[in-house]
Amino acid sequence: MLEQFRETQFYKSIFRGGGVPKSRRQRMMVVLNSVFLHLHPVRLPKHAVKLKFTWCMGGLSFFIFLILTISGILLMFYYRPTIEYAYTDIIDLAEQVPFGIMREIHRWGAHAMVITVWLHMFRVFMTGSYKPPREFNWAVGVILLLLTLLLSFTGYLLPWDQLAIWAITVGSNMARAAPFVGHEGPGAALLAIGDINFVTMGSDMRFALIGGRFMGEGALLRFYVLHCIGLPFIIMIFMAVHFWRIRKDGGISTPV
Amino acid sequence: MAEIISKKSATKEPGRRPPAALDKADTGDQISRRSFFSWLSIGWFAFIAATGGFFTMMLRFFFPNVLFEPVQTFRAGFPDDYTIGEVDLRWKNKYGVWIVRNNEGIYVLSTTCTHLGCTPNWLNSEQKFKCPCHGSGFFKTGINFEGPAPRPLERFKITLADNGQIIVDKTIKFQQEKGQWTNPEAFLNV
């Protein structure tokens, strides 16, 4: 019955090659012809799936990322990023919306992803998997770690409670001290003609980040857009490169 | 633009035949290979310029012209509205300043903690500003004396209007560690 179904045009149009792969070559073709599988190595060495070597932290990070994407999209159906509604919508999500746990899944998932990404980095370091020819993928991984932290940071503001506001106040103040582009940073005073400073509290990097001189509506909306669209878009591009490069760099590293 | 084409076609030798593959309707005003490339480069330059322009737009887009924030310069009433020896809290929430009057005069302190930017509280019984975030403490003058704050609170420009009202200008700040508190605009003698 299943065999018959595999011979239909319907099945063959979706899964090229059709039928149960019988040879090594056919098995390879299945992987190569699938948009989802082609990022993956065609063959996996036995050691590569040993938990004590990989800790499965990279895979878990990606799995948690998927959970966060799905739960995040669900939260967007209720959450309004305005000063008037943001905090009450979070309360509403917890107390009134069916399965109030959704927001908690998103929150704890975010914590978990930061932990798994760090542990993944630790594992890669301890197994020496950053060494050539994988040095570029290590660099991509560092960018992914940074993007993970930025996603955490931007999500932090969205509940708009006292913790959020002051955490982002403190965090975004770092941008004040950035060289040249922060108004309190080194070199900012050099970017001036006579008495006119170009890098001021109303024109520096922090201003662009929070959309104003103080934490307010602008900051909430900007962080919301970055959290829901901007950063996920960038991280997905880097993730695709990261996974693809594992294969191109000769598959997962081998235990010594 | 039309000039370029005519110029290019004019330099073409009249008797020379194009390659066989291009031998179609060789009327002279057809685009030659050379003029095609000059058009192409013009096209690319235009595209790059437009893209560059758009990226500039994108950058500028993040700096709005109008801010819906409290004004930075405001009238704070008459000097007699403030009691000698007290820290006045009335503008704390709206404008982020404390107005302090002592025997000599009045000064305006910023409510932004110099450690990481939180808002300290004025504790009247202990006569100090105490930051709830990391415990920085400041004297009534704004000088830091405990906790992680690395420098004193900032002061803002204070002047008198013609009608005798206090004008506070938050765009101009004075920092003690830079010796700016001695500036006459940092302190209002009354």
Detail the topology: elements first, then pairings.
The complex is a heterodimer of chains A (256) and B (190).
Chain A: H1 2-6, H2 9-14, H3 24-32, H4 51-54, H5 57-76, H6 86-95, H7 101-126, H8 135-157, H9 162-173, E1 192-193, E2 196-197, H10 205-210, H11 217-248
Antiparallel strand pairs in A: 1-2
Helix pairs in contact in A: 5-7, 7-8, 8-9, 8-11
Chain B: H1 2-11, H2 33-61, E1 73-75, E2 86-88, H3 92-95, E3 97-101, E4 105-110, E5 121-123, E6 128-130, E7 137-138, E8 144-146, E9 155-160, E10 166-174, E11 188-189
Antiparallel strand pairs in B: 1-10, 2-3, 3-4, 4-9, 4-11, 5-6, 6-7, 7-8, 9-10
Keyphrases for this structure?
heterodimer, A: 256 residues, mainly alpha, Cytochrome Bc1 Complex, Chain C, 2 domains, two-stranded antiparallel sheet, 11 helices, 2 strands, 60% helix, 2% strand, globular, B: 190 residues, alpha+beta, Rieske Iron-sulfur Protein, seven-stranded antiparallel beta sheet, four-stranded antiparallel beta sheet, 3 helices, 11 strands, 23% helix, elongated
Please explain how this structure is put together.
Chain A has 2 domains: 1-37, no CATH class; 51-248, Cytochrome Bc1 Complex, Chain C (Up-down Bundle). In chain A, 60% of the residues lie in helices and 2% in strands. Chain A contains 11 helices and 2 strands. In chain A, a hairpin with a 2-residue loop joins strand 1 and strand 2. In chain A, helix 5 runs antiparallel to helix 7 and helix 8 runs antiparallel to helix 11 (217-248). The longest helix of chain A has 32 residues, at 217-248. Chain A is globular and about 75 Å long. The two termini of chain A are 47 Å apart. In chain B, the strands form 2 sheets. In chain B, strands 1, 2, 3, 4, 9, 10 and 11 form a 7-stranded antiparallel β-sheet that branches. A 4-stranded antiparallel β-sheet of chain B has the order 5-6-7-8, with no helix packed on it. Chain B folds into 2 domains: 1-9 and 31-65; 73-189, Rieske [2Fe-2S] iron-sulphur domain (Rieske Iron-sulfur Protein, 3-layer Sandwich), CATH 2.102.10.10. Chain B is elongated and about 95 Å long. In chain B, a hairpin with a 3-residue loop joins strand 3 (97-101) and strand 4 (105-110). The chains are: A mainly alpha (256), B alpha+beta (190).
